Amino acid sequence: MIAHLPALQVIIPLVSAPLCALLPAGRAVWLAAMAASWLAFLIAVLLLDQVLAHGPISYLMGGWPVPWGIEYRVDVLNAYVLLIVATIGAVVMSFGRIIVERRIRLPESKQSWFYTAYLLCLTGLLGITITGDAFNVFVFLEISSLSSYVLISIGRDRRALTASYQYLIMGTIGATFILIGIGLLYVMTGTLNMADLAARIPAVADTRTVRAAFAFLTIGVSLKLALFPLHLWLPNAYAYAPSVVTALLAATATKVAVYVLLRFFFTIFGAKFSFETMQLDKILLPLALVGIFSASVVAIFQSNVKRMLAYSSVAQIGYMILGISLVSVTGLTAGIVHLFNHALMKGALFMALGCVSFRVGAARLDRMAGVGRVMPWTMGAFVIGGLSLIGVPLTAGFVSKWYLIVGAMEKGWWPVAVLVLVTSLLAVIYIWRVVEVAYFKPVPEGQAVREAPLALLIPTWALALANLYFGLDPSLNAGVARHAAEMLLGVGQ
Amino acid sequence: MKRYTIPRLGTKLLLPLILLFALYVQFHGDYGPGGGFQAGVIFGAGFILYALIYGLDNARQLMPPWLLRIGVSLGVLIYAGVGLVGLLLGGNYLDYGVLDHHDPAHGQHLGILLVELGVGITVSAVMVTIFYAFAGRGR
């Protein structure tokens, strides 16, 4: 069975999704979904372990040889991203049951479908990451996107429907652009296998078609990953989705899109074409900087805390893209390690907010007065996540910021390093606003709020503690990220 | 629609032919144009025609929602299940060649037939489900 792990990584959630649709709502369907997502986590751990020990794994779907058949190819980079997605998928699923039963606008008879959509979303995200076939990326992208539109639309607030529709329109435009890009590449090379594409593109690189494909892919993927100024769908989608869904999507969906960007720029087109011929870094760098700065400032003025964190996500995506646009080993390491760390911090923060809104009713700032005293554990996890988001030493966030600043200084780009520090201070401001209200404002009269139930607290704290652990011992997150960065740039191997 | 004899009678005449044609497209997909997607749509369209002419309630008796729920899931399970059987018989996932260990070509044939059947079931169930969802609004 070990040899089939790459297929099982995607198949297990895929098969469990229709099974969940057949089960009645309640504990059984949740347990089935739990089993599937934790199995996926286990497989991701085994895959990363194998890749680190023995190098890339190739799996041929249906036994059809490359480049005719679909190949699943696991190397250090996507084993790392698989681990991120599967970990978050499993932890958030553990968190999900109570939220689904009480906080989602779905009649009980339809609650099983939530798990189906969740597992399909997970299938899509894992599939995008693991596949070595460019068209397969599009197929899985659609699976994950369609299910995430559904997941967002079942938020309690009716505005979730318009948010979901907005995301549907933008996401479909993005996916169409990606499809056009892949189609143009297919026209020029006659192949869809990523490794084969990488070998054939240089011969035809100097044509308008390939350049157009590059442009379509860049814009399409940037829409999916919410790169400034294509981020407008994100704040509403995150703010109005149920907290389980926000935690899942914020921690995984944009990360996977960043992975797709890395795969296309570095593996398929090659760093030389992307950054020397097309000079993409000159576009990405200013967009990343403006995105970080403007989204952080906007975040300060939000009264809905979920929306505030959503804007903060746009800023964090800017940090990842900033790391990539440095096009150096340190810069790429910063970008890749931030995929991991941001998943941990945003997962913890959104889950803590989920606990708050479970008890208080809404994640609005004016409703959170004094919750720090009545819900000490929940807000404790929020503070740890917040410190990590700011990048305080001894948290995971510090590791990413450190690499980012070192990477900028290696290039001699002092202003960029300074801007990273300044925007971290902006994060201090918006996290502080929540802390101030939660700890220093009196609890309103007559409000009976208790600590969140353990079933919510345990997964939240698991991620919060992971933020501390990976800040103290960055050998797994930063070590593997550096390995992946060296592989992408083709150095040090 | 009760007083319109021609559409009612026309539907009665056409319905078996539509469903039969869907099965033809389904199982002849190996040799000619067709396959699970097209067949599923035609099959679903047959039920939708029935619902349009004879009303949603009659259609719901003919094709109850609980059956659709099973159909939607079952097709995916058949597809993925065939792949898993290949995996258990020693091939890679979705390798149909191992389904028949005397003649791999025959195994490939069987595999694609079952997979397309799964596609057909899911597509037709999804078509009718979407129609019910739209037609049932505001009731």
Oligomer: heterodimer
The structural class of chain B is: mainly alpha
Helix count of chain A equals: 20
Shape of chain B: elongated
Strand composition percent of chain B: under 5%
Low-confidence runs of at least 5 consecutive residues of chain B: none
Instruction: Figure out the total of helices of chain B.
Output: 5
Number of strands of chain A: 2
What is the global morphology of chain A? Answer: globular
Strand fraction of chain A:
under 5%
Radius of gyration of chain B: 18 Å
Task: Characterise the protein shown here.
The complex is a heterodimer of chains A (493) and B (139). Chain A has a domain at 280-493. Chain A has 20 helices and 2 strands. Chain A has helices at 5-22, 27-54, 76-103, 111-130, 134-153, 159-189, 194-204, 208-225, 234-240, 243-268, 271-277, 281-300, 305-325, 329-360, 371-374, 376-390, 396-410, 414-440, 454-472, 477-489; strands at 57-60, 71-74. With 139 residues, chain B is mainly alpha-helical. Chain B is elongated. The relative contact order of chain B is 0.16. Classes of the chains: A mainly alpha (493), B mainly alpha (139). Chain A binds chain B through residues 4, 7, 11, 14-15, 17-19, 21-22, 59-63, and chain B through 69-70, 72-74, 76-77, 80-81, 83-84, 86-87, 91-97.
